[in-house]
Each structure stands twice: as C-alpha cells, then as structure tokens.
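Structure tokens please, single chain.
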Amino acid sequence: MADILTAEQRKVCMQAVRDRDTTPEMRVRRLAHSMGYRYALHAKSLPGKPDLVFVSRRKIIFVHGCFWHKHKCRHGRISPVTNSDYWNGKRDKSKERDREHIKSLRKDGWEVLVIWECWTRDTDSLRGRLEAFL
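Here you go.
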C-alpha cells in the first residue's frame, strides 16, 4: 500500500517539481547533443514552450512526465489518493493543453515529437527515436 504523506510533506514534495531541466529532459538533451544536433531551449514564442527546438529543421521535441501528462504507461495511470478530484482535473487540463499546442504547432508547419519520461530510461531505444525523427 502506498505511503500517505502529511499535508506539509506533500507541499514540500510538490514544490520540488520542476518544469524545466528535469532528469528526462536532460537525458534527451545530452543524447541529441552527443549525436551532433544543436537546438534552442524552451522557446517562449512558440505554443507550449517546447523543450527542444530544432529551428533549421522545423522540428520540436516535448519531453513529458508520464504522471503529469497522463501517459498510458503504469506511471501515467496512477491516480492520486488525496485530493484526487483536483489532481485529476489538473492532469486532464494538461493533456488537453498539450493537444492544443501540438495542433497549433503542426498547423504552423512544425513537426512535433513527444518523448515520454519512461522512454528516456532506454538510451538505445531513445537514440533510435531521435534518429528517426531528426
């Protein structure tokens, strides 16, 4: 059974969650760089502030956390125990916002790839995905 955190412990935990330079994002960035690709980071002028932007190639990569963006893997299917209505609503909004951003970017001529956190653990597979996309 999952450990239940106190309100204060949960607050500290949630404040530690970052929106950029996360471990999965850094894995993707390091691998893309080692493969010889150069990119811009978190372009504020583009919908969703993509994690990696390959301007000359008109390609964008988002690195999504499985839990926060409701991936279909086991980490994304976890449902919070406490305050579940709030968290599930927040995660649903994130997923819908992601769809809108990707739709807008594709409409503007960008190719978009979403890399899920769980995919970043297998470097060889991740390398193959990046090579195929870029």
